[in-house]
Specification:
Elements lengths: L1 H20 L5 E2 L4 E2 L4 E3 L4 E3 L4 E2 L4 E4 L10 E3 L4 E2 L4 E4 L3 E3 L4 E2 L4 E3 L1 E3 L13 E3 L3 E3 L4 E2 L4 E2 L4 E2 L4 E2 L4 E2 L7 E4 L4 E5 L5
Parallel strand pairs: 1-4, 2-5, 3-6, 4-7, 5-8, 6-9, 7-10, 8-11, 9-12, 10-15, 11-16, 12-17, 15-18, 16-19, 17-20, 19-21
Antiparallel strand pairs: 13-14, 21-22
Length: 189
């Protein structure tokens, strides 16, 4: 009985938090949910599809480096973004439909500038490096890092704690630091 009450309260809390914030986004799809707490910057540059679930402590760190007013982070229908995920989107991060992103994943299209050896890196700023795309149906395992310029293929799998700095082909499993192909998935319909 108490467990049911707690679950209903939690569900109500998520609905209220979502209702309060969804109007700030560029687009917010039907039945999408955002758990509290979450840190969102650049709401107006984020498009969220239908039936998306963004878990607690997610940090969507978004800005428009080009100044074009276009979305820089697009999250497709049915996508799940786990707890404590950080996504930096300065110009172009695309997450297609039905992508599964586990907890503590880091995804970024930008990086710190470190060209002046005598100046502290934190004072040099950051800049866009290259677009990131997570294709339909892929799964990014817990603690993985997706670096700028990477495309994760359709229904591909990124193993836990992997660091991905090269594209991952469709229907492929990668793992490790740096991530390497460990298996090609058999296509079954």
């Amino acid at each position: 009985m108490i467990k049911k009450i707690i679950l209903k309260f939690r569900s109500l809390h998520i609905r209220i938090f979502t209702m309060l914030l969804k109007g700030q986004f560029r687009a917010w799809g039907q039945d999408s949910r955002l758990e509290n707490p979450a840190k969102i910057s650049g709401h107006s540059h984020i498009e969220v599809g239908k039936h998306v679930h963004i878990c607690s402590n997610a940090w969507l760190n978004v800005k428009d480096d080009k100044g074009e007013g276009k979305p820089t982070l697009t999250i497709g229908d049915g996508t799940y973004i786990g707890r404590s995920v950080q996504i930096n989107a300065w110009q172009n991060v695309v997450i297609e439909d039905h992508v599964l992103i586990a907890d503590r994943v880091y995804i970024s299209d930008a990086d710190h500038i470190f060209e002046k050896s005598t100046k502290p890196i934190m004072l040099q700023g950051d800049k866009f490096r290259a677009s990131v795309c997570l294709k339909k149906g892929c799964w990014v395992g817990i603690g993985a890092v997706i670096m700028p310029g990477v495309t994760i293929g359709k229904n591909a799998v990124v193993g836990a704690n992997s660091v991905v700095y090269k594209d991952v082909p469709d229907f492929t499993v990668v793992a490790g630091v740096p991530a390497k192909v460990i298996r090609v998935l058999t296509i079954k319909k």
